[in-house]
Structure formats: C-alpha cells, structure tokens
Amino acid sequence: MDHNGFASKDIQTVRKVVFMISALVCVLLLTTVIGGYVYIRSALQPVDPEDKKTVQVSIPIGSSVSDIAAILEKKGIIKSAAVFRYYVKFKNHADFQAGNYQLTRSMTLEEIISSLKTGKVMREMKLKITIPEGKQLTQIATIIAQKTGYKQEQVMNQLNDRAYIQELIKKYPMVLSPDILNKNIRYPLEGYLFPATYSFPEEKPPLPAIIEPMIAKTAEVLAKYEEKKTEKGFTPHRLLTMASLIEAEATEKADRQKIASVFYNRLRIGMPLQTDPTVLYALGKHKERVYYEDLKVNSPYNTYIHQGLPPGPIANAGEMSIEAALEPAETGYFYFLATPAGEVIFTSTLAEHNREKAKYIGKE
Question: What is the separation, in whole angstroms, between the first and last Cα of the chain?
Fold first, then answer.
C-alpha cells in the first residue's frame, strides 16, 4: 500500500478545505463590512429627501443624547438612534436644548442637530434656579421650594423617594449606582445635584423635571474626566465624596489641590481625615466652631472616629473640587488651617499645626 499517496491526498484535501473555509470567512467578513458600511451610509442620509412635511418633536428638559436619539427615531426623523448617537459623539456635538421643534424627514443630521441647538424655547423660560457650590441637599431643597412654591418637605420627599431613586439609577447608570442606597447614607442624592443655573419653561415644573437636569449635569461633567477617573480607580460615588470634602473645606483663596493632598496623605498612612465639615454634617447643623464634645458624635459621617471617606458626599462639589480630587498636589502636608482672613495655612506636623492654630485662634 502506498501510504505516501494517501498522505499526499489527505494533505491536498485538508488544504482545499482550509482554503474553502478561509474564502468563506473572508466573504462573510467582506459582506458584513460592506453591509455595515451601506447601513451606516444610509442611516446618515435623510429619511426621505422629498418629504417636507413638518413633524412636531418635543425634547424634554434633562434629555440625554440617547433620549433625544430615541425620540427622533420614534418620530421617524432619523433612521437609526444608534448611528445618531455615534455621529453626535464623533462630531463632538453638545448643548442640545429642550423645547418643541418642527422637523422634517428631509433634513440632514447636521440640520437636525443645528435645529436642536437653537433652543427657541430658552428665550421663553419662566423659571431660573441657581444652585451654588457647596450646598447640601436640604439647602438645595429650600432653594427649589422658594423659587417654585413647593413646600421644602415636598421637595425632600421627592428627593428621598426610594422607588424614584431606583428609576434614576436605571436612567443615569453612568453617575448613579446602588451605592447611594447604602443604609449609612443620610440622603441618597446628596452631592449629585450639580451647582449651576437651570432654566425652565414653566413657573412650577414637576419636581422630577427640576431634579433630573441637575443629575444629568453631574453626569455630563464627570464624563469629561472619565479617563482620569478610571486611571485613579474612582467610582463616581467615591469621587464625589472626596470632592465634597474638598469643597466644604475650601475658601475662595484656598488651594484645593493642596487640601486634596492633605486628605490623600492621611488616607495613605491610615490616619483619620478629621475634617470638621463631616462632624457638622453628622450633627445636622451649622456652627461657627466645632468643639471637642462635637467630635464624639456617633455617626458614620464623623471622620474623627471613622477612618477613610464618609459613606457619601456631604454637599455638592463644583468642577474645581472634582479636578482637585483627581489631580491632588504632591506635598508632605498633613494639616491645614483656615485663618479668619480666608487664607489657608498648610503644615507637615501636629506641633506646627498647633502653633499656627494658637496664633490665629488668639487673633479671633
């Protein structure tokens, strides 16, 4: 028997099979690529270049790009919500405005995007709410109540409604996580209502329509730091918690990055953060000075008796504090002290800190 003949035939057969499979894979890949190209190219074109009939499209306040894409696809203004989302991201489009728009199926994506940025409704805004930096949830609820006529209690009830918060976690997964429902957290949305000015077309919008743009703004700001956040191993919750401590300690003249460095230096050696604003938050009241008796308050927020970060943010943080939390200065400082003039003095040892404290407390 000629074994070599059989072996040669087998090899030829294997080669043919491999060639056929390879050719088939190449054809399938090519078909997929061509199909994908044709699909995307088609999705970038107007739905119907001949259809000039206007369609009423309403974009609610607080809508994300995904929300807008879904609305446009449902109304038949675009062919694909997914392609629209990627197109917007690729072209770096932003600042879409809420409002009622007259759009047509003959519009190009650029024409649609341009229309959605005009925000004609913005000129007719009847309510403006400004949320300053460093405000706590109860203070924000008071601002909303004063501006809208809701009772502060009604606003707080909405902000603490567990079923509503679970809806929000699903709606804003990039910023809200189940961490905010931890039993030790006083108010789940504390620190998540971004400090900015918000405008509304009604004098008294439904509370979710007021709250959600503030969460969407937090998500938008954090998205800018996604790379740094991942690099540092921060969840949004931990980042906003640290940023809130920096915000609470910062004065106008303070170097937030140096304040951040003190906190990180303490965390690194297992030293409690010992920051007074967490004690005041635990006490639930504002005081000009924290006394030794206050430092014993039994609360998971008290960073004098608990190591590490508190369970969650103690206020809302501005962008400068978020940046400082992500990029602290490199220092050897472990202490800082705010003087009556608003200056912040940084020191490396407890002896130096006590000396500065005695000097400035003596001046008060």
Answer: 109
Burial class (CB within 10 angstroms; exposed 0-12, middle 13-18, buried 19+) of 14: exposed
- What is the secondary structure of 147-163 as a DSSP string? HHS--HHHHHHHHH-HH
- The predicted-structure confidence for 84-137, as pLDDT tens digits, reads as follows 888 888 888 877 888 788 888 888 888 888 888 876 544 467 889 999 999 999
Give the H/E segment covering residue 197.
Answer: strand 197-200
Query: Which CATH number among 2.160.10.10, 3.30.1490.480, 1.20.1530.10, 1.20.58.2050 corresponds to the domain 54-122?
Result: 3.30.1490.480
The pLDDT tens digits of the residues spanning 126-185 come to: 889 999 999 999 999 999 999 999 999 999 999 999 999 999 999 999 999 999 999 999
- For residue 9, the surrounding DSSP H or E stretch is helix 3-43
Give the Cα separation of 297 and 287 in Å (integer): 14
This model's pTM is above 0.70: no
CB 135 within 8 A of CB 316: yes
The rounded distance, in Å, linking the Cα atoms of 6 and 16 is: 15
Signed CA dihedral, 163, 168, 173, 174: sign only: negative
Q: Please, are residues 211 and 172 in contact by the beta-carbon 8 Å criterion?
A: no
Which amino acid is present at 318?
G
51, two tokens: 């259809």
Backbone angles phi, psi at 207, to 5 degrees: -55, -40
Long-range contacts of 121-124 (CB under 8 A, 24+ apart): 121/97, 121/201, 122/97, 122/199, 124/201
- Gyration radius of the chain's alpha carbons: 28
Q: Are 212 and 62 in contact (CB under 8 A)?
A: yes
| CA trace torsion 37, 39, 40, 42 (10° rounding) | 120
